[in-house]
Amino acid sequence: ADFIHKIEAQDDFVFLVTRSQCEYCDQLLNMIEVTKYDHELQIFHLEMRDDTIEHLNEDIDFLKQYVERPDQTPHYYYIEDGEVIADQMGYTSLNPERFWDWAEILGLD
């Protein structure tokens, strides 16, 4: 409901989509948790329900109304005036702060 409200209000925000059974999602979330105090960026996070394939497909179908490829996690989007302006997916231990680099390139951080 918060996500829909932010879209309808044409807010600007960073939207992070993860799944609980995604190893890379866990690593990204851990990195953000450890480093978030070094950054001023507020992140709106949604963890898809992946306890069953039915729940996961429901969440993917819902999110596809607003963003592309929510099934590829972790996936993060910059939404400006309610529209996706930029997105990036994935996490790598070779460049663990790639999320923050992305935010900096966009001028968000």
Folded structure, characterized:
With 109 residues, the protein is an alpha+beta fold. Helix content is 36%, strand content 24%. The chain has 4 helices and 4 strands; from the N terminus they run H-E-H-E-H-E-E-H. The chain has helices at residues 2-8, 23-35, 53-63, 98-105; strands at residues 13-19, 43-48, 75-80, 83-89. Strands 2-1-3-4 form a 4-stranded mixed sheet, sandwiched between helices. Strand 3 (75-80) and strand 4 (83-89) form a beta hairpin. The model has no long low-confidence stretch (mean pLDDT 95).
Helix-strand sequence: HEHEHEEH
- Estimate the helix proportion, in percent: 25-40%
Structural class: alpha+beta
Shape: globular
- The count of DSSP E runs of length 2 or more, i.e. the number of strands, is 4
Q: Uncertain segments of ≥5 residues (pLDDT<50)?
A: none
Spatial strand sequence of the major β-sheet: 2-1-3-4
Number of helices: 4
Measured by DSSP, the beta-strand proportion falls in: 15-25%
Query: Main β-sheet: number of strands, strand sense, barrel status?
Result: 4 strands, mixed
Oligomer: single chain
Distance, first to last CA: 26 Å
Roughly how many Å is the radius of gyration? Answer: 13 Å
* Averaged pLDDT: 95
List the SSEs and their pairings:
Layout: H1 2-8, E1 13-19, H2 23-35, E2 43-48, H3 53-63, E3 75-80, E4 83-89, H4 98-105
Parallel strand pairs: 1-2
Antiparallel strand pairs: 1-3, 3-4
